[in-house]
Amino acid sequence: MATVPARTAKNDDKVLLSPEFMTKLEQLEILSRKIFIGRMKGERRSKKKGESIEFADYRNYVVGDDLRFLDWNIYARLERLLLKLFMEEEDLNITVLLDVSKSMDWGDPHKGIYVKRVAAALAYIGLVNYDRISLYGYNSTLVHEMRGVRGRRLVSQVIKFLEDMPFEGHSDLAAVGKRFALRHTGKGVVIVLSDFMDKGGYADGIRYLLSRDLDLYAIQVLSPEEIDPTLVGDLKLRDVEDDDLAEITISKPLLDRYKANLQAFCTELKDHCTRRGIVYLFTNTRVAFDTLVLAYLRQRGLLR
Questions:
Q1: Other C-beta atoms within 10 Å of 122: how many?
Q2: Helix, strand, or coil here: 223?
Q3: Residues in contact with 58: Cβ distance below 8 Å, sequence separation at least 6, in sequence order
């Protein structure tokens, strides 16, 4: 019997963002399909009526309103007291949930490094646009976190945080989604980066995340070897997350059945997300990283 070795990342593959790519990212911003309110005034306009400089609408005056915002010209013409409303500036909260379970430490190109690069790119775009960024590495729980950072000065700190994040343990999206929902009552954009190959399934985890009315994106990343395996013969396969062993004989009919089951799994995940208003994107690590960010994420409406 042959034991199939895992393919891990090489040291020279671990640079997440090049200076040239960062320059391209500076032209982008992260969008939300919904309007969210942050704790500080930021650099984005929302549809909430406030008191900034851009006029939005009128409403009737009520006792206690600030008299400085009455429109006296309208009062002179119509003898009605109307208060001017303005567009308010608000920050955007962006969270990246990054699967760092052992199953991500595999593939050529490497799945884990690929999703770290996506997380780093999204974080960089948010930081240069002065959004509020939170990063979480998860396996069976939230094991690494950097919450609520903002500003370009923190870029190197964020990238090092991602680079140093190890891949270990097994994934449990249900437990992670529940813990995240209990701890985070605010709204915002949440991007989940994972292979979604969770023995406990993904449905409960997604349900917990949706309970917070989040603007949710699911990006599924698989390696070429998972999509089109080339294994043949008598093999001993080991689950990289829980060390379960299976001795099987791999034949063409078995590979065909595996590919059909994988396609069905990915289609079911896509449909599950789409029915619930979640933007789903599938990619494999052979897709150039810059193409994913600069083209596909823009096409799906996450970036502009």
A1: 28
A2: coil
A3: 71, 74, 82, 83, 84, 85
Cα 204–chain centre separation: 18
**Confidence band of 42 (pLDDT split at 50, 70, 90):** very low
Per-residue pLDDT of 260-286, as tens digits, reads 999 999 999 999 999 999 999 999 999
SS3 134: strand
Domain boundaries, the chain: 2-37+92-299, 44-90
Range 2-37+92-299 classified under CATH 3.10.25.10: no
DSSP structure class, residue 301: T
- Token couple for 173: 């999206």
Q: Which segments within 166-278 are labelled E, that is strand?
A: 189-194, 215-222, 233-238, 245-250
Side-chain half-sphere exposure of 217, counting CA atoms within 13 A: 29
Residue 30 tokens, joined: 């992260």
CB 157: neighbour CB atoms within 10 A? 11
Q: What is the pLDDT of residues 205-241, one digit of tens each?
A: 999 999 988 899 999 999 999 999 887 765 667 666 6
> From CA 101, how far away is CA 84, in angstroms rounded?
53
What are the C-alpha distances in Å from 277 to residues 34, 272, 292? 12, 9, 21
Looking at the DSSP bridge assignments, the partners of residue 133 are 94, 149
* Nearest 10 degrees: Cα torsion 106, 112, 114, 117: -160
Q: Both tokens of residue 131?
A: 């959004």
